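@channel sequence for tomorrow's demo:
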Amino acid sequence: MSDRHARNTLAISGLAVLVTFLDTTVLFVAFPDISRTFASAGPAQLSWVLNAYTIAFAALLVPAGKVADRVGHKRVFLFGSALFTLASLACAVAPTVDLLIAFRVVQAVGAASLIPSSLSLVMRAHPRERLPVAVAIWGAMGAAAGAVGPTLGALLIEAGSWRWVFVINVPAGIVIAVFGRRVLHESTDPETRIPAFLGVVLIAGAAALASLAVVQSNEWGWLDARTIGVLVAAAVLLAAFVLHEKRTSAPALDLELFEIRNFRWANVSMFAFGIAFSAMFLSNFLFMTQVWGFTLIQTGLGVTPGPLLVAILAPRFGRLAGRVGQRPLIISGGIVYAIAGLWRFVILGAEPSYWTEFFPSMFLTGLGIALCVPQLSSTIAQSLPMNRTGVGGAVHQAIRQFGGTLGVAFTIALISRPQTAAESLDNFDRVWLLLIIGGLLSSAAALRLVTPRVVAAQDVNAARAAMRPVLAPAEKP
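structure tokens (generated this afternoon):
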């Protein structure tokens, strides 16, 4: 592959990642405005505007990755882009909250088709020694969405309404469609089997029930029979999913991939970090608007430094990881992120003081994310056999999204319906504790990672041997 093709592929795939995650970040900004539009809906129902998307997205990422491996990464990438764009238009004109939630699910189908196929296109366009930087840049586009999204979303809402945050996806979708057809090269793995749909239903149902229990816990109570019953039902579905995946000939999730040490522990780390990340991002907007009384534009500008720092630092940390390995960066990032949560817990008060109280924590969260998220993606990418990049990348993103779903659910459950300013601060203190726990758990899981050189010599060969019956002829040892 030529350098020009590699750059063009990274640019188009990165734009798709930017648009997909931009949609998520601007929805956090738009959430209060959506709540006012559909005032008759309660916080629990409105939470599904966010969580229905992430659950469907996460549940479909792995099957979509396998479909992309089987029928073509370029083909699935372009299909996902078109569907995501059309669903965005439908969301913009949704007359009811129920229809908005339904169209968000359709959006998720498109996004789930885009993400794993775009990563596979990037990985196949770059030589293996350049993958750490390429994947870090690909992942940093999500951080760029975090930098642009809050302010852009606030401006659109102030100028019009939350509906405009969906319209902005359309121009990007057109650009992806036009240039993607010309630039991208098709690649497939015809040996990949399309997964059974039952596995998708089971894992989506488990995630939906777990989110429902968390969101309703504030109203029902954690020890209420309804909360416990829903959590038990979620656990039963999760167990049924694992049993189904072990027995079916067409699994939605290749459990063999978890025999790869770095793949296993990086995903555990990402799940913990995903919970803390979504809790941080949503609570940023709610804290500054509800407690400090900031306008949407002030809030959007206030949260921008963190993700902007990620976009700047992530490629540089990618180059550093190419020399020292991802493990020390991820461990450090989780600790830094926990310190950011501790700062908020100790320092933040009811009186606005952005530069001395909030900005330092934004700097620390941005530094922690830049150290962790792109490096976790790069760790997983380097641990996978080349003919499992699509499904492996999809598993990673799915686990991140499932963590994010729980992060949103916990945040809404922890901060809903405060009666006084003191109660509001206490509720947010519980969210800050979630940041501390998530960061520390992420670092603890990263302690089990090994350097890319060790992975190449041990785990990848073991994974190839375990999957030998399904490897394409060119991939067989």
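heads up for whoever presents: The mean pLDDT is 86.
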